[in-house]
Amino acid sequence: MTYTQTGKEEDIINLFREDNVLAMNKLYAEFAPYLTGICARYIAEDAELKDVLQESFIKIFTRIDHFEYRGQGSLRAWMARIVINESLQTLRQKKKFPLTSLDNEPVDLPDEEPATYGIDTETMAQLIGKLPAGYRTVLNLYIIDGLSHKEIAKILGIKPDTSASQLHRSKNMLAKLILDFKRSKQ
């Protein structure tokens, strides 16, 4: 397929509108790595990640005829939201979302503020993956997805204060993991 001046997203949408048999393959080839990265922010286990991605792609493929293209980036954002929602739904169903039960645990604060220079993206993702699911989820929703504590609370069915507490604890735990990683490399 030769991409037009309109961009890859619009070309892929047009393939779906034309019922072109290559539409699904083109969409998957173009966006699977990006969507896998999003899913990996929430789902730590590889087999579960693959299940969530499969369910996400099924939803994407079955609902794409209802998608309204609004310019470059709109398809990518729409698919990302499906993957995030599917990931959160999986965490809720598997009861891997112990947010409120962690509020009474003492916070283990690092001795110093860690610098992240010298840590590659893959290693940082692995360190974030070591956080408990509740911590990791709030951290991702707040820092990466840019949601407010009020929005996170609504999505997760918790109080905004709980979201803020989870974020604080996740940052502290991540700081400790970063420091431990750096010490292990010395």
From TrEMBL:
Location of the RNA polymerase sigma factor 70 region 4 type domain: 124-172
InterPro entries for this protein: RNA_pol_sigma-70-like (IPR039425), RNA_pol_sigma-70_dom (IPR014284), RNA_pol_sigma70_r2 (IPR007627), RNA_pol_sigma70_r4_t2 (IPR013249), RNA_pol_sigma_r2 (IPR013325), RNA_pol_sigma_r3/r4-like (IPR013324), WH-like_DNA-bd_sf (IPR036388)
Residue ranges constituting the RNA polymerase sigma-70 region domain according to the UniProt record: 27-96
Matches recorded under Pfam families: Sigma70_r2 (PF04542), Sigma70_r4_2 (PF08281)
GO molecular function, one term: sigma factor activity
Keywords: Sigma factor, Transcription, Transcription regulation
Single GO BP term: DNA-templated transcription initiation
Family: Belongs to the sigma-70 factor family. ECF subfamily.
Entry protein name: RNA polymerase sigma-70 factor (ECF subfamily)
Organism: Hallella colorans
